[in-house]
Specification:
TIM Barrel, three-stranded antiparallel sheet, 373 residues, alpha/beta, Enolase-like, domain 1, 2 domains
Length: 373
């Protein structure tokens, strides 16, 4: 076994342009900001990771700036000098040092896995127990807010064989307006596509009762986080009465949250996100809780770039069943790349490389071009 130790950890904030504004209930993204992590080891191996948020502090507790600051000041110094091959010890130390900070920890765990995979000549999926599939079906979010434009975009994706699962971001508009928008899109696409919605907690329970009923009756396949994560009893009531299955997303801020949600019966689907659980290994613990409770799984995203997307993908490849597919389309939103070879999407799926580590290499010129000064 190698005696390599961690010598340096660097966090770089990168601002990348997107193909269009991405409208969420709480925020409209005009670009995507990534925190790229470079973990250098004494044996000359470098591992790369990524920590990315949706809408910064408008969505969650961490922002790109706080991620970098906490890594630079607290997490990176704690890792320097530790054995690069002992990922358990490294992550346990970070968990004792810092509460929360799951986005930062996820990026660091991904970099440790990438480095160790390169060291052993194995893809990260093999370090996580072994892949049971080589590709993942990927949904696309229709987030323009314009019904005709969203229909046209969905039809184009179907024709290109790029996506046949579509998620609509709703909640910012009046309830009846949102329902009309979603029902019209489902009617236009018919049985050629799966249509789902994400409310990002923006309904109260009274709105959700009507919203879930109407959407379920019109063939919407799932409803993501319709009400606040703080209203746990409301989530339980809604999960029992909704004709369409309810998926927990913002409700899962940790592995412990997953256990509590499963015990309460607050959702029938869990969205898995490495950033919100603390890394690829951590998200598999949430998946195990869900499987034991009979809860279905969906591979979620924080709209990561290529590095974070493949870190998620390697974990999702190892799951026994992903009933609801994944949402790993983040790189497709970007007009520029910072890796030498972009992830491959074809025939509705993301195809994951079977090469050492994450299977990616940084493009140094592009990274320098888009790094925040």
């Amino acid at each position: 076994m190698s005696h390599a130790v961690i010598e340096q950890v660097e966090a770089v904030i990168v601002d990348l342009p997107t193909i269009r504004p991405h409208k969420l209930a709480m925020h409209t993204m005009q670009q995507q900001t990534l925190v790229i992590l470079r973990l250098r080891c004494s044996d000359g191996i470098e591992g790369i990771g990524e920590a990315t948020t949706i809408g910064g502090l408008a969505y969650g507790y961490e922002s790109p700036e706080s991620i970098k600051a906490n890594i630079d000041a607290h997490l990176a110094p704690a890792l320097v000098g530790m054995a690069a091959v002992n990922i358990n010890a490294a992550m346990l130390k970070l968990d004792k040092l810092a509460k929360g900070n799951t986005f930062a920890k996820s990026g660091l765990e991904s970099a440790l896995l990438d480095a160790h995979g390169k060291r052993l000549g194995l893809p990260v999926s093999e370090l996580l127990g072994g892949r049971v599939r080589d590709s993942l079906e990927v949904a696309w979010t229709l987030a323009s807010g314009d019904t005709a434009r969203d229909i046209a975009e969905a039809e184009q994706m179907l024709e290109l064989r790029r996506h046949r699962i579509f998620k609509l971001k709703i909640g910012a508009n009046p309830l009846e307006q949102d329902l009309k928008h979603v029902v019209a899109i489902k009617k236009a696409l018919g049985n050629y596509a799966s249509v789902r919605v994400d409310v990002n907690q923006y309904w109260d329970e009274s709105q959700a009762i009507r919203g879930c009923q109407v959407l379920g009756e019109h063939g919407i396949d799932l409803i993501e986080q319709p009400i606040s994560r703080a209203n746990r009893t409301g989530q339980v009531r809604l999960n029992r009465r909704s004709p369409a299955p309810i998926m927990a997303d913002e409700s899962i801020e940790s592995v412990e949250d997953a256990l509590s949600l499963a015990a309460d019966g607050a959702a029938s689907i869990f969205a898995l996100k490495i950033a919100k659980n603390g890394g690829p290994r951590a998200v598999l613990r949430t998946a195990q809780i869900a499987e034991a409770a009979g809860i279905a799984l969906y591979g979620g995203t924080m709209l990561e770039g290529s590095v974070g997307t493949l870190a998620s993908a390697h974990a999702f490849l190892t799951l026994r069943q992903l009933t609801w597919g994944t949402e790993l389309f983040g790189p497709l939103l970007l007009t520029e790349e910072i890796v030498r070879q972009a992830p491959v999407y074809r025939d509705f799926e993301l195809h994951v490389p079977n090469t050492p580590g994450l299977g990616l290499a940084l493009d140094e010129a592009q990274l320098s071009r888009f790094a925040r000064r």
